[in-house]
Amino acid sequence: MTKRKPPEEKKQGNPRPWNAAEYKPNMPEIAFNKLKEGGAMVEVASELNISKDTLYNWIKQGNPNYKPELADAIKLGLTKSEAFWTRMGYTSLHSQFFKVALYIFQMRNRFGWKGNDQPDDDEKKEPSLPPLDKKAIAEFKEKFGEEF
């Protein structure tokens, strides 16, 4: 008769380390740097070694795990990311390999760009300035000269 092996002792620690998302103080800097070079949120999550869900939970206001410094870094990083891709667009525009439709598709999906065929329903419009009246123009010319 064969002897049965005794059951192995359970190992201490988390058997699934991917569930153990731990916030570290250098994460905002890592996220910002990844985004400023044009990275996407999925790349940020990968770089931080966390899931996308965890990342979005950490930057969502009202969430008990909200990380304001990470949220601020990501807001600024997303602005830098959009600037990066905008710059890539206008510097590559004259290349024979530039795919305009692909670029527009990416910008619409990544940054919420609106096309002419979509109504502009958001409130991200540039503020309109009131027209200058003749008196204000005359005062400006008197103060700064005719060259303006």
Describe the structure in your own words.
The structure is a single chain. The protein has 148 residues and is mostly helical. The protein has a domain at 22-115. 49% of the residues lie in helices and 0% in strands. It has helices at 27-36, 41-48, 52-58, 68-92, 100-111, 134-144. The protein is elongated and about 110 Å long. The model has no long low-confidence stretch (mean pLDDT 81).
Please give the structural blueprint.
Blueprint (H helix, E strand, L loop, with lengths): L26 H10 L4 H8 L3 H7 L9 H25 L7 H12 L22 H11 L4
Helix pairs in contact: 1-2, 1-4, 4-5
Label this structure with key terms.
148 residues, 0% strand
| Multimeric state | single chain
Strand content: under 5%
Percentage of residues assigned to helices: 40-55%
Overall pLDDT:
81
- Label the overall shape: elongated
What distance lies between the first and last C-alpha atoms, to the nearest angstrom?
103 Å
Overall number of strands: 0
Biggest beta-sheet profile: none
Tally of individual helices: 6
Task: Give, in order, the helices and strands.
Answer: HHHHHH
